[in-house]
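does this look right to u?? glutamic acid version
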Amino acid sequence: MNKEEAVNKGANLSGLLSLLKPSATLEITSKAKSMAASGEDVVILAAGEPDFDTPQSVKQAAVDAINRGETKYTPAVGTLSLRKAISEKLKKDNGVEYSPGEIIVSNGAKHSIYNALQALCNPGDEVVIIHPYWLSYPEMVTLAGATPVVVKTSASSGFKASAEDIKNAITGKTKALILNSPSNPSGAVYEKQDLKAISDICLDNGVYVISDEIYEKIMFDGIEHFSIASLSPEARDMTVLVNGVSKSYSMTGWRIGYLAADTRITSLISGFQSQTTSNPCSISQAAAEFALTSPELEAELEKNRAEYKKRRDEMMNLLAGNEKIQPFKPLGAFYLFCDISATGMSSVEFAGKLLRDEKVAVIPGGPFGEDSFVRMSFATSLEKINEGVDRISRWLEKV
Ligand code: PMP
Ligand code: GLU
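got this back:
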């Protein structure tokens, strides 16, 4: 091989990864954070993470774990004591029983979803996702060799897909449905009757449900979270339940998520994780176990939830009456998904110009499959919310 041929051969890197879109949420958030760090007066309404600090007692649990010497490899699937704590949590909060052998702890719920798709899918399979979707779902489906099939919803249907919509998207190749309630980015919530109808369709067609319940603890207006896995033993066997501590306990940087599923699935993921990442951080696991088993943290979650609700209401009020931007009222999570079609701009153009002109960071809806919307996070102080909306309103008068 001559030198030129050798260089060309070396340049031929992974086609699959070359097509992958980097996460816009992480990219824009980190750009805005670095602008703020270099002294720019940025209002960040982009972040998909709680602004509250991790509770002090959780931090102390991590320090204690270090001092006890819990600084070595743990079982690849997570410590038995953490998996027991998760098993108890799922029974207590969600009314569904999984043994510790049916639970796998990973580097965040994102990693759990990736593992689930790798375990469920074969090349040529289809996975149904509901628009507007968390932007990592289609990319992770593609990485598993499967094809994402998008079910379109609208603000007028509450950004929820009906069982009928899902039925129409199912083909002989459909392996799974990804369900996210409360939803990122819309804040839509599927209630028990919605889930019952969807579960019936999935069971009739042998379709698994990956149920992403990461925003379970951030819900408003008295609506209760309900897990599709708890509907029936059959539903449980066809569900991969995903959750984690990032959003509930303000622990995004600690990277602990988990999934619970029948052993047919967890035994595959156990081998996969042992050959790819090994265990998630031992110290973070100890901290997550403390968080999940400490009843005194319940009061803190309640306080945070009340604060998020206050911020949601404030942001909705501040935007009310502005004809150029129409927020969709979220029942959970901490995002306001806003229709910007009256501005005539695409979501990327809107977010790009807003950051450039007014130094307000929001996430374009395009990567979530909805280009006439932008996503604004209210996981920030009331002061920042007021300042951000002020700047947006002023700017919208000019554009
Ligand atoms: N699912 C949804 C819908 C999310 O918004 C996020 C964002 N962090 C995750 C999963 C992943 O969370 P993590 O990996 O931090 O546990
Ligand atoms: N999930 C959050 C968001 O949507 C955090 C960033 C990410 O993991 O994509 O903004």
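The chain has two domains: 3-53+298-398, 72-292. idk if thats expected tbh
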